[in-house]
Amino acid sequence: MHIPDGYLSPETCAVLAAGSAPILYVAARRLAREADTAVVPRVAMASAFGFVVQMLNVPVPDGTSAHAVGAALAAILLGPWGAMLALTVTLVIQALFFGDGGILALGANIFNMGVIAPLTAYVIYRSLGGPSPGRRAFGAVAAGFLSINAAALATGIELGLQPLLFRAADGTPLYNPYPLELAVPAMMFAHLLVAGPVEGLITGLVVTYIQRVQPDLLARHTPAAGSRVWVPLALVVGILVILTPLGLIAGGTPFGEWAPEELAQLVGYVPPGLVELSGRWSGILPGYTVPFLAGIPGGEVIGYVLSAFTGIALVTLAWLILRQLLARPRVRP
Predict the structure, then answer these.
(1) Cβ of 20: how many Cβ atoms within 10 Å?
(2) How far is it, in rounded angstroms, from Cα 263 to Cα 37?
(3) Which of 49, 72, 241, 329, CA to CA, is 20 to 30 A from 230?
(4) This model's pTM is above 0.85
(5) Residue 219, number of CB atoms within 10 A of its CB
(6) Phi, psi at 61, each rounded to 5°
């Protein structure tokens, strides 16, 4: 679901970035006002969870792949504002350091996975989750399934609108070549059938686990609920890191994330706008690989795990910096 550069027009990217910016500004203000710096370790751990769970790609029957997002769990534990910021930090680090998602398309990816997904998850969980363990587990599963599909629907619409709105002089699509009638069903097929159930299952299992070890975290839907949320989440993240090599098994490229040469094999040409915008930045560890491990037996697996640890470290560092910013004394007029 990480849209690379070149699949969306600069105009589309600008609109989605402009739509995300004020929401994230409000989220930051709300987070600072409601919880100050006490929430930062919890948000950091939710960011780390999102980073690692997104590395667990799963195969889709059409030959592509998909992955969970982690937005639902973040929304359940942190509320919508903390979840939005947690996912945003994850997406920024993925784009800058690993080339997962485009730099120009970052605002679009934040809008889809960092705004729509956690907001949908929060609304669903508040509507369906109840005081009993069974209701909470059900609400968590539903929130996970529906939130990732809401994000997938938005992504499919954004991609599918490109051939309608932006065409080259010869009439061919300038950016993403797949129209709405193909882009939306393809995105929904992968997420209704595979990624949605995975997201729901993971969210439900983690919420069930937290109910057993620290149920007070689920008693209130505010970022300040519970002071040790990072402890159970750290265990979950650790388990996911061990499992990250499973993400290499999927093989297929997610829909709408093909490199230009792959797209040329699929449709017979590469849109000129996509050629112009794609490939400008591939990250320091492109595709969660470590260049000096290339060619070494097991190097791909080792590099993938090292990338997971690197991502967690970068997420933690980012939130430590943000913690210092939040800790600055407020000047009252």
Answers:
(1) 23
(2) 45
(3) 329
(4) yes
(5) 11
(6) -55, -20
Q: H/E element holding 224?
A: none
Which of 83, 14, 17 has the alpha carbon at shortest distance from 44? 83
Q: How far apart are CA 102 and CA 116, in angstroms?
A: 18
**Structural tokens at position 222:** 């505010």
Contact 232, 210 (CB under 8 A): yes
Question: Which residues in the chain belong to E strands, given as ranges?
Answer: 58-59, 65-66
Q: At how many degrees (to 10) do helices 133-165 and 196-213 cross?
A: 150
Pair 91, 110: CB distance under 8 Å: yes
Q: Which two tokens stand for residue 258?
A: 């093909």
pLDDT tens across 172-218, in order? 999 999 999 999 999 999 999 999 999 999 999 999 998 888 887 77
Which residues are within 8 A (CB) of 118 and not within 5 positions of it... i.e. 6 or more apart? 71, 72, 74, 75, 80, 83, 84, 87, 147
Give the number of other CB atoms < 10 A from CB of residue 332. 4
- Answer yes or no: are the C-beta atoms of 121 and 128 closer than 8 Å: no
What is the token pair recorded at 305?
Answer: 């795990």
Where do the domains of the chain lie?
10-327
Q: Of how many residues is the chain composed?
A: 333
CB 86 within 8 A of CB 74: yes
Topology (CATH) of 10-327? Arp2/3 complex 21 kDa subunit ARPC3 (1.10.1760)
